[in-house]
Specification:
Helices cover 38% and strands 21% of the residues. It is α/β, with parallel strands linked by helices. It has two domains: 223 residues, Carbamate kinase; 142 residues, 2-Layer Sandwich (VC0802-like), CATH 3.30.2130. The radius of gyration is 23 Å and the shape is globular. The mean pLDDT is 93. The chain binds adenosine-5'-diphosphate, aspartic acid and magnesium ion.
């Protein structure tokens, strides 16, 4: 079997859902399982509703809910057979309206926010299943929540893989064996008690990979709006080229440092079984896309030292200066314990003899982190920074590369430079406004024209 995941832009409206159905038709012999995101923009709209309710903006809540209901209803009506989905969606919009009303004026609890955000995938999957039935396919709509059992860290929940593997096999395999095409939701899950959770923004890719691993898929297809994994984000570098292949490690590093095309955790569940990920363009399904597979096969093919350049903004650099760390052991451990206690993820680390610089993306628990770090040394922050990451297996073995990298980055003020432990990435921290330019200069140096 295979897993086919369709992102928001591939389920944006009736036309794109129609195209999805035609793509699925070409995959029937592979026994596909379909995973979908919410219609483009719907998750953002749902989160905005939660905020509007908190701000007691009843007009905005009503307008938002009506807009979502209208959009789903008109999409359903435009799709042959789509009206079958209407009742379930309309009923759920009503349920959502009263849930949101219940949060009016109070800070929504993380559980409330996840319950609200998870609606988009529930609705889009109804539309897709109805459209598939309308086209003569045999879909089976599946609620993923009893299968995707997670912990209760709302908005960034972690699935319990053993439970999920067992339930996926019990619930989904019989459907596929019966010749049906299961259609289910990315991004969402539920606690063992059935409370809805989400896996983090962009999490549908991760869902597809988890289900692919659970069902021993022969590949996981990620259908999106670009031809595959590219040498840079084409929105920044219009001349970016599509890669035919990349390793799991490279894909994970690129995603961690801002290549939104794949969620950073996508490769993780697939590594052990060596299941390939194929990134494909739903607008140009005839293109070969990018195959992300175990690195061993790739190194034989490898030619260019760098595979791709990514960047992400909204980064804060935390500097800790502690003269007594010179020659003292236990300092780094004490420092990392602070981050661990507050569950703050560190992306990049560079350390000198008496100081350490780290980068974090999530500022929500920063005050507490800084307070505790101040007990270890002098702490100062630099915000509005960006990380630019150059990624490629070739970085491991190409002499003279550092000089080219530094030359390309040089006009910008580079504040932290770091090489990942796996030696397949080199990261630079720059001011946010310099990020796109640094990406373009590096791209010009390693891949030619911008
Ligand atoms: P989906 O809704 O299908 O999940 P996303 O918007 O999450 O799609 O991801 C696709 C987008 O990722 C592309 O439109 C592109 O702008 C962006 N992107 C960033 N870096 C890269 C890269 N290295 N290769 C391809 N796309 C990239
Ligand atoms: N709909 C979710 C989001 O916008 C999940 C996804 O698209 O992968 O983040
Ligand atoms: Mg995405």
């Amino acid at each position: 079997m295979i897993v086919c995941k369709f992102g928001g832009t591939s389920v944006a409206d009736a036309a794109t859902i129609g195209r999805l159905v035609r793509i699925v038709e070409t995959r029937l012999d592979d026994r596909p399982l379909i995973v979908v995101s919410a219609l483009a923009g719907v998750t953002d709209a749902l989160l905005a509703l939660a905020r509007a309710a908190y701000e007691r903006d009843a007009g905005k809540v009503k307008e938002g809910l009506d807009g979502l209901a209208r959009r789903h209803a008109s999409t359903a009506r435009e799709l042959p057979g789509g009206e079958v989905a209407l009742d379930a969606i309309e009923e759920d919009v009503k349920a959502l309206a009263s849930e949101i009303e219940g949060t009016t004026g109070r800070m929504p609890r993380p559980a409330d926010v996840d319950a609200i955000a998870s609606r988009g995938e529930l609705w889009s999957s109804r539309l897709v299943a109805a459209a598939m039935a309308g086209a003569g396919l045999s879909p089976a709509w599946v609620d993923i929540r009893p299968i995707m059992v997670t912990d209760d860290r709302f908005s960034r929940a972690t699935p319990y893989t053993q439970v999920l593997n067992k339930r996926a096999r019990e619930c989904l395999t019989p459907l596929i064996d019966a010749g049906l095409v299961p259609v289910t939701q990315g991004f969402i899950g539920a606690t063992p008690d059935g409370v809805p959770t989400t896996l983090g923004r962009g999490g549908s890719d991760f869902t597809a990979a988890l289900l692919g691993a659970a069902l021993s898929a022969s590949r996981v297809e990620i259908w999106t709006d670009v031809d595959g994994l590219m040498t840079a984000d084409p929105r920044i570098v219009p001349a970016a080229r599509t890669l035919r292949a990349a390793s799991y490690e490279e894909a994970a590093e690129l995603a961690t440092f801002g290549a939104r095309v794949l969620h950073p955790a996508t490769a993780m569940p697939l590594v052990r079984a060596g299941i390939p990920i194929v990134v494909l363009n739903a607008r140009r399904p005839e293109q070969p896309g990018t195959t992300v597979a175990p690195s061993a096969e790739l190194e034989r093919v490898g030619d260019s030292p760098i595979r791709s350049i990514s960047w992400k903004k909204g980064i804060t650099v935390i500097n800790v200066r502690a003269p007594r760390m010179l020659g003292a052991f236990g300092f780094l451990r004490a420092m990392f314990e602070v981050f661990e206690r507050h569950e703050v993820v560190v992306d990049v680390l560079a350390s000198g003899e008496v100081s350490v610089s780290l980068t974090v993306e999530d500022r929500s628990r920063l005050d507490a982190v800084v307070r505790e770090l101040s007990e270890l040394g002098e702490v100062w922050l630099e915000d509005r920074r960006a990380i630019v990451a150059v990624v490629g297996i070739g970085l491991r073995h190409t002499p003279g590369l550092a000089a080219r990298l530094f030359k390309a980055v040089q006009p910008a003020n580079v504040e932290v430079i770091s090489q990942g432990a796996s030696a397949i990435n080199m990261t630079f921290v720059v001011r946010e406004e310099d990020g796109p330019d640094v990406v373009r200069r590096l791209h010009a140096e390693f891949f030619g024209a911008c």
